[in-house]
């Protein structure tokens, strides 16, 4: 396609590096492991990889607590390995997106260690320190997402510091000009290394209310949910900062920045996207839908409507923080619904994000005992919430020990279904999820209407079938997805249509839709 722009027109694939491929056989995935799988990723047809954090980290939150923004954690390899990865990826037209966790650092970051030395230390103001209230209580009522109050008392300093997540993840003070400039340098550093995109972790939490007012109460079960989060996230100061970030990123042609909004609805999320802001942000409203075509349709229409004309949508169904789509929607090992979901993701208007293993329909691993849990929030909230280990299990490559992920015992167990559900076996099965994924990605790539086309729903208030048309220049494509286990009929728009999934079949008028059938039909005008 002419003027193909990777982040807008391509498919982005999220890798959780701990779990993708382990070349050093220590049970934890690494950069060399990713390099070894680049040919696979190229054959899959993806255009970019988003790497969950690979910076040095004490792993209280598995990489989302960074102790050095310009280093590579030795468990993943070296800077040389990273440079090699960039080079090898480039050869295959695969772009690299780094995860930047700039709302907070690890409490082992040199800045924080200095910050807590004394109130006079030049780094003290790099974090959010406050005196206790006269009665010794924390400065306000803010709560931590991962449980308990968001303020941790430091005996030596006689002050509290603020942490939105774990106490080992102190929030930095973005209002301090030195912090701001050091963080902006982090973008420059990685751009110079050949990185072409960034995913910003909880960026809309960078700024807090300057007066640290109490959040108003609201109904909810646990502490964090019992507040209206109007003072701890989504402050107006974020917009000028995004403009500044965008200016830096734009100095490198075709570079990209996508943001993870936290506690933001579709409107709020969309407000951060545009020519002088983020290229894109994640729309959780879509990803969190239950299995109903109307829900998905409503979410995307709301999303398209909220985005300004200079913003391009993106869509995702799974990531490292939520139960995998296949586990949410499928019955057992039956992939019918996973295929419908994937077809929707790859044919809606918007850049699709795939989560590693989604292409083979990987399921979450079961979490049975508290003692087995690695994710600290799972330990903390057990048994009400079991954490995020389920969706972070090793990639299933082969029917071999540890699914071919590693020769050593992996850091999380491999799903028992790996003997049947793995890349190698699915490659040789024409009906597999993987062959379906590859076919869809390649159809998408060669069909401009699916990449750039306008979106028009063909079903009003759908209960069983979701159908929509994508139009671009002379191309018209319709996508028909049977969300149900019933055999149904669908009336095609006027004219003759050719099937893109099973070539050379022409259809007109009424067609039948088998349970969970996916049809993609094209008409050239
Ligand atoms: C969002 C990340 O996706 C999640 O994994 C992490 O725990 C929090 N931000 C804190 O960084």
In the CATH scheme, the class of the largest domain would be Alpha Beta
Give me the secondary-structure category. alpha/beta
N-C termini distance: 18 Å
Task: Supply the number of helical segments.
Answer: 16
Bound molecules: 1-deoxynojirimycin
- Average pLDDT figure: 97
Strand order of the largest sheet: 9-8-7-3-2-1-11-10
Any overview of this molecule?
- This protein is of the alpha/beta class.
- The protein is built from 16 helices and 19 strands.
- It has helices at residues 6-9, 31-36, 38-44, 79-91, 110-115, 177-192, 238-250, 266-271, 284-287, 293-306, 325-329, 336-347, 376-381, 423-427, 433-445, 448-452, and strands at 12-15, 48-51, 95-100, 129-130, 151-154, 159-162, 197-200, 256-259, 280-281, 314-316, 351-355, 454-457, 465-472, 475-482, 488-491, 497-499, 506-507, 510-513, 518-524.
- The strands form 4 sheets. The protein has an 8-stranded parallel beta sheet with strand order 9-8-7-3-2-1-11-10. It has a 6-stranded antiparallel beta sheet with strand order 12-13-14-19-16-17.
- The longest helix has 16 residues, at 177-192.
- It is globular and about 75 Å long.
- 50% of the residues are buried.
- Bound molecules: 1-deoxynojirimycin.
Concise summary:
With 525 residues, the chain is α/β, with parallel strands linked by helices.
Write out key terms for the chains shown.
single chain; 525 residues; alpha/beta; TIM Barrel; Oligo-1,6-glucosidase, domain 2; Immunoglobulin-like; eight-stranded parallel sheet; six-stranded antiparallel sheet; 26% helix
């Amino acid at each position: 396609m002419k003027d193909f722009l990777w982040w807008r027109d391509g498919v982005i694939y999220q890798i959780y590096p701990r779990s993708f491929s382990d070349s050093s056989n220590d049970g934890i995935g690494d950069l060399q492991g990713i390099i070894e799988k680049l040919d696979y990723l190229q054959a899959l047809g993806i255009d970019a990889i988003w790497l969950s954090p690979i910076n040095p980290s004490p792993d209280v939150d598995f990489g989302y607590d960074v102790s050095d923004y310009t280093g590579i954690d030795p468990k993943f390899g070296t800077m040389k390995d990273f440079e090699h990865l960039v080079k090898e990826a480039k050869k295959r037209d695969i772009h690299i997106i780094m995860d930047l966790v700039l709302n907070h650092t690890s409490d082992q970051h040199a800045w924080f260690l200095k910050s807590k030395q004394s109130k006079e230390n030049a780094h003290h103001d790099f974090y959010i320190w406050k005196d206790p209230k006269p009665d010794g209580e924390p400065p306000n009522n803010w709560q931590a997402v991962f449980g308990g109050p968001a303020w941790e008392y430091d005996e030596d300093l006689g002050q509290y510091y603020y942490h939105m997540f774990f106490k080992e993840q102190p929030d930095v003070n973005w209002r301090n000009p030195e912090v701001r400039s050091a963080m902006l340098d982090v973008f420059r550093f990685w751009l110079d290394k050949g990185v072409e995109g960034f995913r910003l972790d909880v960026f809309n939490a960078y700024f807090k209310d300057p007066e640290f007012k109490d959040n108003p109460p609201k109904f909810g079960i646990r502490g964090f949910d019992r507040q209206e989060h109007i003072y701890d996230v989504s402050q107006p100061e974020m917009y000028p900062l995004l403009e500044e970030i965008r200016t830096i990123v734009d100095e490198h042609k075709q570079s990209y920045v996508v943001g993870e909004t936290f506690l933001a609805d579709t409107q709020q999320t969309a407000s951060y996207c545009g020519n002088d802001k983020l290229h894109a942000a994640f729309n959780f409203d879509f990803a969190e839908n239950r299995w109903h075509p109307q829900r998905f349709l409503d979410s995307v229409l709301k999303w398209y409507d909220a985005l300004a004309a200079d913003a391009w949508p993106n869509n995702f169904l799974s990531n490292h923080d939520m139960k995998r789509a296949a586990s949410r929607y499928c019955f057992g090992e039956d992939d019918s619904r996973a295929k419908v979901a994937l077809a929707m993701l790859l044919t809606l208007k918007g850049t699709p994000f795939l989560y590693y293993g989604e292409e083979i329909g990987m399921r979450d691993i079961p979490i049975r005992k508290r003692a087995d849990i690695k994710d600290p929030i799972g330990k903390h909230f057990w048994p009400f919430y079991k954490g995020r280990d389920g969706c972070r299990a090793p990639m299933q490559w082969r029917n071999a020990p540890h699914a071919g992920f590693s020769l050593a015992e992996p850091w999380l167990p491999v799903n028992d279904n790996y003997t049947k559900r793995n890349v190698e076996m699915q490659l040789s099965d024409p009906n597999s999820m993987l062959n379906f994924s590859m076919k869809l990605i390649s159809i998408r790539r060669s069909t401009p209407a699916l990449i750039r086309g306008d979106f028009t729903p063909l079903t009003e208030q759908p209960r069983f079938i979701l159908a929509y048309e994508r139009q671009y220049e002379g191309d018209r494509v319709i996508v028909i997805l049977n969300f149900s286990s019933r055999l149904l009929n669908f009336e095609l728009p006027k004219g003759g249509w050719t099937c893109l999934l099973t070539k050379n079949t022409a259809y007109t008028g009424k067609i039948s839709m088998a349970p969970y059938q996916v049809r993609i039909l094209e008409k050239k005008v």
